[in-house]
Amino acid sequence: MSIQSIISDTTYFQSRRTRQLISTFLAISVFILSLLLVVQAEDESVFPEAVSSVFTFEEWVNQAEDWMKDNFRWFTRMVAGQIEAVMYLVEDFLIDSPWFLILMLMVLPSLHFGGLPLALLTLFSGLFWGGVGMWEQSMQTLALMGLAVILSVIVGVLLGILSSQSDRFEAWLKPVLDTMQTMPAFVYLLPAVFFFGIGGPPAILATMIYALPPVIRLTNLGIRQIPDHTMEASRAFGATRMQTLFKVQIPISLSSIMLGINQTIMMALGLVILATFIGAGGLGTEVWNSMYKLNVGWSLEAGMCIVFMAIVLDRLSMAMGKSKELSPLANTMPFRLFPQTWDKHNWACQTERAIGFVWNAVSEFCGWIVGLVAKAAMRGLSPFFKEHVCEQVRDFLLCRRFLVGSALFIGGMVLLDKLIPGIGGFPEYINFSFREPIDDAVAWLTVNPSFIAFTKGLRAVVYLGLLDPLNTYLVYLPWHFVMIVLVFASWKLIGGKFAVTCLILMLFIGACGLWTEAMLTLSSVFVSVLICMVIGMPIGVMAAHNPRIDMLIKPILDAMQTMPSFVYLIPVLMFFGGNIVSAVIATVVYAMPPVIRLTTLGLTQIPPAYTEVATSFGSTSMQKLFKIKLPIAMPSIMLGLNQAVMMGLAMQVVTPLIGGVGLGRDVFAALNQANTGYGLAAGMGIVLLAVVLDRLSQAWTRKQEKLLGL
């Protein structure tokens, strides 16, 4: 290495160190100045009323809504009537049909697309719904969500195709989708009730709007990512634009479209649960009633029904998006139940041999039945059609043995239901319940002196040590000082354009008269995320270094991420009461999984060469962790922090049910008052805070990646 390169490297690191020292000194100075401003403040910081009196966003929205009501409400009610008729038709079919028929209608596609493991999972989930006595409620939720997803997919795929064909349309649609994805779910319920009434139709339409963005984005992305040479080959063979779209672009991008449908299903299931607030039935009503009665066991049973429904629909939609192929390892028997890598275990091979024998026997039997049906169809059609037409019908039936066999099987079950009255009801001997042991355990904890002392201590630490000081600090801090700090940070981390955007967004919050509520929301989210990091990072570190811990917490995190947020409120309300601390604790539980997952991911993706070099220099395990692993994994950890902030903001709309404050309480109050303007303003406040915090955290993460050379 030359002396000149050494001098240049030394100069670079010295200038970098100088910039870091200046940034640290500036941050400390700003914090001290803010403390002095808070100490000198005599009252809460209030946004100028002169601006709020001119910018009457709430009135503008309500006036626009009244105009739309006078001119278009007849049309929306007509649409609601048509949707309601279809919904009742689907719901009556699912509820009135024999339980084993509906179960087989779910199990057979799972068997076809996902194999035996997915079929068994679907079978277990369906038996769980009926076993806990919530079969009818599950069918109501399935009908509501299914219709919403079908409408979302039809509209979303069409908009995604239009977006992929026009850059101008994509540029116009992108900010609309950004707003739709960050808007709190409750806000969609306000105009839905106003225009479409109470019950299933407004819930379906609100769910449809909420769940549209993923399928639009991924349809557009899948079509745009098709290689140019593929498009050139299509045009070279003389294909028109429509032929290229339907015969080349859509088939190639089908996996991306199916991924968008998968995400749409998950989002639809999340909002369908909230639709209970506008009169929609189903599992959401069970969760709400259990919360109203503070019955933890009941809520957990309903929540587990939702978890199983989410898992089954997620796995099935993902399996449908993949090509069905069987590629076992060389010189090994194909595994249908266990992973192929388990072929080293003798017990797994023996089990698979037994399953394979049964599988082949059933396949041969189904093939024989379908062959008889094909021959009978050919004989029946021979007097009316030519021989080659009859042969085509026979070949069609034989090539689709699974479809024909499934139809025959379902038809046989329907005939069995008609011949034996009462067999279609879910059998009582399968019923089970685990709510009583859980309720007993919760009741014991609520009167246990040690647990009571723990909850009181935790409540005091969170409130007196974190929430109350931070609430006072942010509420009394002058609004213009907060804006200057955020705009300056936006300018330094991102650039001048976003600094101007940040200023406009924060001015919107203040002009709507929501400044104090926004600061309270920030306070609750900051405290929740801080606790998430303090608890989640150590768990993520342990999971990264211990595969057993990782294997243990993975299913727990999966259940936590799919469990409806309402379920967390009930035990928190029973243990900690209805107050702002309870809202923070519920937010911590809801936002914890991404912190743990991404901390583990960041640490496990570090190349072994880094730690080997540190070991060769005699570093201890703790030195390697704090000086090498955590700094390198910091971008991934910051992404987990970003996700925790987003989930914490989303949780703010639900926490007012147990004493939460801030913008979420305003959204909930607007829903109760049917005040769309007020609710939209508060919802936009949460959206704008999410945009600012998201962009700042991502910019800081990119800066750290650049400094680390990643």
Word description of this protein:
- Helix 14 runs antiparallel to helix 15.
- It contains 28 helices and no strands.
- The longest helix has 40 residues.
- The protein has 710 residues and is mainly alpha-helical.
Describe the secondary structure blueprint for this structure.
Blueprint: H1 3-40, H2 49-54, H3 57-96, H4 99-131, H5 135-165, H6 167-182, H7 185-196, H8 200-224, H9 228-236, H10 241-252, H11 254-274, H12 283-292, H13 296-320, H14 346-381, H15 387-399, H16 401-419, H17 435-447, H18 449-476, H19 479-493, H20 496-511, H21 515-545, H22 547-562, H23 565-576, H24 580-604, H25 608-616, H26 621-651, H27 663-673, H28 676-708
Helix pairs in contact: 3-5, 3-7, 3-8, 3-28, 4-13, 4-16, 5-6, 5-8, 5-11, 5-12, 6-8, 7-8, 7-27, 7-28, 8-11, 9-10, 11-13, 12-13, 12-23, 13-17, 14-15, 14-16, 18-21, 19-20, 20-28, 21-22, 21-24, 21-26, 22-24, 23-24, 24-26, 26-28, 27-28
